[in-house]
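User: I'm writing a short report section on ligand binding and want a predicted complex to refer to. Could you take this sequence and glutamine and write out the structure as tokens? A short remark afterwards would be nice.
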Amino acid sequence: MTKIGVLALQGAFAEHIAILKTLGVDTTEVRLPEELDGIDGLIIPGGESTTITKLMLSYELADKIKKQALDGLPIMGTCAGMIMLAQKVDGTNHLSTGIMDIAVKRNAFGRQVDSFELDLDIPAIGDEPYHAIFIRAPKIEHAGPNVDILVKLSDDTIVAAKEGNLIALAFHPELTADNRLHKYFLDIVNKR
Ligand code: GLN
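Assistant: Sure. The structure tokens for the complex follow:
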């Protein structure tokens, strides 16, 4: 049975696990490096990226996640999880994994609109609009040549992208009933 690890240091990991369970896959909470062994995919949830970075470094998870990503492990990072994947954060090299060729800006939507909801067009998951929840969300400021843009807002802000086995989402797919993005991720996992 497909087994998906969910990084469970801080943030919205329980919600991801609940959705994955409805999709019939086995799940495991990841806090220690050895808990990364034997998983077929990894989700890095939203939360607070400074906290997740600190914990990831002190639990010695960052290097192992990086190595597994380079070996092809599918990883989906959502909101703070997207920040954890990025090579650059707010203009500086990131201390976490830095595995995805994107540069992100934290809290990119300003204080007044800390949180908002928006219907997005995501051709990769079908024609129906996708209702996305953004909470103090980051944006992708720059994406390398091998990165596919999954979603751009009307002002061209990039909020979702894919690079090979890696998916980065600026919003929270675990907070809506629409499970198409988790299914999209599991398709990548099952094709591997
Ligand atoms: N603003 C948070 C950060 O920079 C991310 C918010 C979230 O994951 N919902 O870490």
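A remark for your report: The helical segments are 13-22, 49-58, 62-70, 80-85, 180-191. The first helix runs from residue 13 to 22.
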